[in-house]
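Below is a filled-in request sheet from our internal design queue. Each sheet records the structural input a requester submitted and the sequence that came back. We keep these sheets so that new team members can see what a complete request looks like end to end.

REQUESTER: design group, bay 2
PRIORITY: normal
MODE: inverse folding
CHAIN LENGTH: 247
BACKBONE (tokenized):
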């Protein structure tokens, strides 16, 4: 038996707009369209109703998940605790063929991209995700957008924290320490253990052959070693001045 309904009533039944029903009457509901009304008992109408029910059910589930994720993210941002920052456990796929090298590279340098850009700890797992991995992880575009928005907020907070620490003198620029302190120390140490050791030994032997005593040789050796650290000390001194200027 036919169950004729107006377009507006059929739209309300399916929680869609009247415009959507008008469009469907020219396509999916064409067989059920009877004059100005729609036969709700027609097979295509029944299929349409079931389809809309499933879509609305999925939408509700997605919105619930979105609210839960957003709530958790906001709580972490407010408290400043990111012990488990938006990480969903995922079984790592078995890597074969030419992707094996990529996996090895990832393990060797899991915190940087191939161009040396540093990747934050809480998002490093997504560095080698494929599009399929992203879809499996988040399911909907809204969930992915929420995740990226949360990551952006976290990075903004982290950037502010780093700036505050630098202004308080808690943090020192890594590149400045490496170039201004570590490199000069390593260079002086290397020169002393290679060419320096040979040169100093030859000079000590020569001094000893001229009759120089032990105390004089000790003083001479100390002076020779000190020469290798003069340039290093000056470089470090300049670095400390630069740090004081930036405070």
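RETURNED SEQUENCE:
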């Amino acid at each position: 038996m036919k169950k004729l309904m107006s377009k507006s009533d059929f739209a309300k039944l399916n929680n869609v707009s009247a415009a959507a029903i008008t469009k469907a009457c020219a396509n999916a509901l064409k067989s059920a369209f009877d004059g100005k009304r729609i036969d709700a008992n027609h097979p295509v109408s029944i299929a349409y109703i079931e389809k809309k029910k499933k879509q609305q059910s999925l939408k509700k589930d997605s919105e619930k998940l979105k609210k839960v994720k957003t709530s958790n993210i906001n709580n972490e941002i407010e408290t400043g605790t990111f012990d488990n920052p938006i990480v969903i456990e995922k079984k790592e796929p078995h890597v074969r063929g030419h992707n094996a090298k990529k996996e090895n590279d990832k393990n060797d340098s899991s915190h940087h991209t191939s161009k040396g850009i540093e990747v934050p700890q809480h998002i490093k797992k997504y560095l080698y995700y494929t599009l399929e991995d992203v879809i499996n992880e988040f399911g909907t575009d809204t969930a992915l957008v929420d995740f990226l928005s949360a990551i952006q907020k976290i990075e903004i907070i982290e950037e502010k924290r780093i700036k505050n620490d630098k202004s308080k003198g808690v943090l020192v620029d890594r590149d400045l320490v490496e170039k201004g302190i570590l490199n000069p120390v390593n260079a002086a140490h290397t020169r002393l253990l290679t060419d320096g050791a040979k040169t100093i030994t030859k000079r000590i032997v020569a001094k000893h052959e001229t009759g120089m005593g032990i105390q004089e040789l000790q003083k001479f050796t100390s002076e020779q070693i000190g020469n290798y650290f003069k340039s290093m000390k000056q470089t470090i001194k300049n670095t400390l001045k630069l740090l004081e200027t930036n405070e």
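SHEET NOTES:
- The CA atoms of residues 85 and 218 lie 59 Å apart.
- The beta strands are 4-6, 33-34, 37-39.
FILED BY: M.R.
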